[in-house]
Amino acid sequence: MMKRTIVLLGLTSAFCLMANGQDQPQQPVSPTTSSSYIVKTKGVKPVVKATKVTTEGQKKEEEAEATDFMGKNFRYKSMCDWTEGMRFMVVPEKYDMLVNTFCDAATGKEVSSNRLRHKIMVYKGHVEKTSGRVHVNFTCEDDNKNYYYELPNGTFDDYCFGKMGVPTLAYLGDVDTARKLLMNQVMLTRTEFFREDTEWDGDGFNEVRYPKNKVVTVKAIGVGTRSFPVKIIVEDDEGNQFYQNVAMSKINSGMRDDEFSVDNEKFLFQGSFEFTGGEMAVASDIKSYLNQTVHTTVSTSMSSKGSGKVRDVKVPRFTGFIIDEINPVKESPYYTLTLRETETRRIYYKDVLFKEEDLMNVRDATQDDYFGHIFGMGEGALRNTSLETRTAIREGRVIPGMSEDEVMMAVGEPFQKQTNSEGVREWLYTRSNGVLLVVQFNAKGKVSKAGGRAVKTNASSGKKTSKTSKKDSDTRPGGTMKTGTPLED
Q1: Is the predicted pLDDT of residue 382 greater than 70, yes or no?
Q2: pLDDT category, 452, cuts 50, 70, 90?
Q3: pLDDT surpassing 90 at residue 146
Q4: pLDDT higher than threshold 70 for residue 385
Q5: pLDDT tens digits for range 267-290
Q6: Rounded-to-integer distance, Cα 158 and Cα 256, Å
Q7: Burial of 278 per CB tally in 10 Å (0-12, 13-18, 19+)
């Protein structure tokens, strides 16, 4: 695991360990103080119990009409729309230590970002000085002093429409709203990658990995970073605690929307968590399929994304998948499965019906739409076969070394089983091109040869007779016996 440690100033005494080395019991702390916004995963500090707090700015956000959770509760505000009283915390990164962000309004002198670390700044508007420079003003709740951030260039109107914002500041309005709405909520994880604290008096952490679609409960919410200001600590049913720093409204995040993609997608709330219960449209019996391993029992069509494009592909039977996501199709009984192939890790998509009766009720629905027809649970009978054999089975080929069961999986039941004049057991399969596929087994029950025989009709009797082709006896590497022959429909 990657470990990244940033040395911080010591936190307040509310987060000190007890003298005997055990964690302190959880203690309610007023969320109006700086220390209440610093939370850690279990084993490093006591989990802070959140108290319901709503600022005036948040009330206006909640009054706005929206249909989705994020849009309703976490509206983006550019600096142009900031109102006096909005609260932020100074959370400098390593590079913020090199250039000081704030100046003391009384003296005009720069103030070390390290000295202001974890202090709460309250926005007090902006003013254009006679020199033409623009000061963005704040009052510090912790020391009751006034500070300002001087814009690097241009007017306030020129600057405020961008995503640049004020360096080091994490927006606390999102933290307060998240505490009010998310504390003790049960959710599902939507990514495998999270973090775990390693220091109770610093920002050290380990990257940890847990399965997607894991049921977790929100245990604490505090401040994260400027870009991802809401730190959400969750706990699974085994008592493991881990966290994610996420962006909610993106106020003052300093990041463009297109930067919240690929590796950074997990730092959006919806990239790491999903509601369960009434907030989730997937029924509990269907949710039980999440994270399960399945295999295709028939060849079926799916969609696959490659090179940025989605295309339809035919997936052979006995292909193994892990179900990563199940999303309901709007105004339809169908669900879209996001499937990760167990061997290649490639992602596929398949719309399915989970109820067999829906096949009768949905117009144009076929067996290829029914989950129970397409998939079997688990890895299937292929789990003990080699990669080469699995590939041959999926392609409908028979290769030397296959067992009888594996031949059955590849080409099905033979129309005839016999022992030839040399005492060799053979299975015969008819092919659409007038050729027999003949599979021969050795004394150990493994395929020794497999190849085609031309079928000729006896003119006098009208009966079909078979004639061994030269390819049947070809056992050289690269010959028919090595690559196998598919059984055609």
Answers
A1: no
A2: confident
A3: yes
A4: yes
A5: 999 889 987 654 445 566 787 888
A6: 17
A7: exposed
Task: From 431, 400, 429, select the one nearest 417 (Cα to Cα).
Answer: 429
> Which tokens sit at 466?
């078979």
Q: How far apart are CA 255 and CA 225, in angstroms?
A: 12
Strand partners, 460: none
**pLDDT of amino acid 225:** 94
Q: What is the pLDDT of residues 343-353, one digit of tens each?
A: 778 889 999 99
- What's the rounded mean pLDDT across residues 244-253? 94
- Average pLDDT (420-439) is 85
Residue 474 CA to residue 476 CA, distance in Å, equals 6
Segment 120-135 shows an average pLDDT of 93
Q: Which range is least confidently modeled, 137-141, 312-316, 443-447?
A: 312-316
Q: Which amino acid is at 220?
A: A
Tokens 């997937």 belong to residue: 282
142 neighbors 119 (Cβ within 8 angstroms): yes
Which residues neighbour 128 within 8 Å (Cβ) at sequence distance 6 or greater?
A: 134, 135, 155, 156
In this structure, the strands spanning 134-140 and 120-128 are antiparallel
- What residues pair up with 14 in beta bridges, in sequence order? none
Q: Walk across the sheet containing 134-140 and list its strands.
A: 110-111, 102-104, 146-150, 134-140, 120-128, 87-90, 169-171
Phi, psi of 222 (to 5 degrees): -145, -160
Spatial separation of the C-alpha atoms in residues 424 and 90, rounded to whole Å: 82
Give the number of other CB atoms < 10 A from CB of residue 156: 17
Find, among 117, 92, 89, the residue nearest to 173 by Cα.
Answer: 89
User: 124: which residues sit within 8 A by CB, 6+ positions away?
Assistant: 84, 137, 138, 139, 146
- Would you say 350 and 337 are in contact if contact means Cβ atoms under 8 Å apart? yes
Q: Extract the runs of DSSP E, i.e. beta strands, from 181-299.
A: 186-189, 193-197, 205-209, 215-223, 230-236, 241-246, 273-275, 293-296
Q: What pLDDT, on the 0 to 100 scale, is given for residue 479?
A: 34
Query: CB neighbours (10 Å) of residue 483?
Result: 14
Token couple for 79: 């600096």
Phi-psi region of 229 (alpha: psi -120 to 50; beta: other; left: phi over 0): alpha
Distance set, CA 410 to CA 248, 268, 372 (Å): 51, 45, 21
Contact present, 396 and 407 (Cβ < 8 Å): no
Question: Burial level of 425, CB count in 10 A (0-12/13-18/19+)?
Answer: middle
So what's the pLDDT on residue 407? 87
The structure tokens listed for 354 are 């989970």
CA distance 102 to 78: 20
Q: What is the pLDDT of residues 150-199, one digit of tens each?
A: 998 888 988 887 778 999 999 999 999 999 999 998 888 888 899 999 98
- CA distances 344 to 199, 340, 388, Å, are 38, 8, 14
Distance CA 350, CA 274 (A): 21
